Amino acid sequence: MSENYLLSFSTTMQRRDFIRNIGLLGLFSYVAPQDACAALFKKEKPLKGFNLLNKFNPDFQTPFSEKDFEIIAEWGFNFVRLPLSYWCWSKKDDWYHVDEKILKEIDKAVEYGRKYKIHVNLNFHRVPGYCINPPHENVNLFESNDALNACDYHWKLFAERYKDYSSKYLSFNLINEAPSIADEKYDKVVRRLIATIREISPKRTIIVDGLDVGSRPLMSIADEKNIIQSGRGYQPMLISHYEASWVFGNGPMYFPKEKLSWPLNENGKIYDKNWLSDTLDRNWQPLIEKGGKVHIGEFGCHNRTPHDVALKWLNDLLDVFDEKGWGWSLWNLHGSFGVLDSDRRDVKYESYKGHKLDRKMLDILLKHK
């Protein structure tokens, strides 16, 4: 594949599949009608914060840390997204098994959010029948009624569990990074889950990730109340995922490091802040014209991208979000994309509450919070 293809915008591939075959993610948006959902953005400052990955992988899951919420609040951020794998409290071969001990650990995270005045977004990163990450499920959520019934069961469980929490403090994110499928198939799943939640919690704000891994909205639900359609901010992948070990093909793993910069000049084509903004406007103007609001559920830059390049790109990206009034959540707080313990080779870390803090990256986030 050409380097131009690497930097082109893709709306037809799943992100992780694309990561294997190389392409780009866009910066994406969600719709918020004039209702309780819109109040999250109009009456209060935009929701900005971090993804916390304690229940992202069942093999490495840990209880959520109150210290993380304390740090996020101390910095002045007001949002956390919790990507959850149902394998943490259930079983891949027994969808209806529930481990109450694990659910109580999620309860604590929701309570931490309320205690520190941080909005908590519960995201099902893996559901029965679908996950963007390997290993893939044995059945297809969008084809199997059995998988949909099981997914519905778990969202009903969560809706009942948190029905007394206001949408000011808690929202639900149905499925992480929907694949490239027909709108009708996704609509069927989404409407079923929304209906189940709304029977129990009629005013719950629900976040629906866009199709094609967040690259386009599900327009059939654009007029539904209290619905947000969420997207990603990893564009271009060459910057955000440079030398990422899970990326295969003639792309971020092999691009000459001496040519990597931001803005990026690739064979005479310039990728810069204007390009980011124009690309986003071109893809999302129809929603914007309908009064759509924008939130970026994930964005960030892997630790192998040179730090100075990562910071310039990050600042421009956040400038674009600011200009459009969009909130965001960095992937992640801790780890290779984060501001704590990111293990970059070219950063002079600051000791901070038992962690290694990337102060320069944090300062950019603080400037835009």
Report on this structure:
- The protein has 369 residues and is α/β, with parallel strands linked by helices.
- It has a single domain (27-233, 297-367), classed as Glycosidases (TIM Barrel, Alpha-Beta Barrel), CATH 3.20.20.80.
- The chain contains 12 helices and 12 strands.
- The chain has helices at residues 3-7, 15-21, 36-42, 66-75, 100-115, 145-161, 183-200, 211-214, 237-240, 273-289, 307-324, 359-367, and strands spanning 48-51, 79-85, 119-126, 170-173, 206-209, 227-233, 264-266, 269-271, 295-299, 327-330, 350-352, 355-357.
- Helix 6 packs parallel to helix 7 (183-200) and helix 11 (307-324) packs parallel to helix 12.
- Residues 1-35 have low confidence and may be disordered.
Task: Set down the secondary structure blueprint.
Blueprint: H1 3-7, H2 15-21, H3 36-42, E1 48-51, H4 66-75, E2 79-85, H5 100-115, E3 119-126, H6 145-161, E4 170-173, H7 183-200, E5 206-209, H8 211-214, E6 227-233, H9 237-240, E7 264-266, E8 269-271, H10 273-289, E9 295-299, H11 307-324, E10 327-330, E11 350-352, E12 355-357, H12 359-367
Parallel strand pairs: 1-2, 1-10, 2-3, 3-4, 4-5, 5-6, 6-9, 9-10
Antiparallel strand pairs: 7-8, 11-12
Helix pairs in contact: 6-7, 11-12
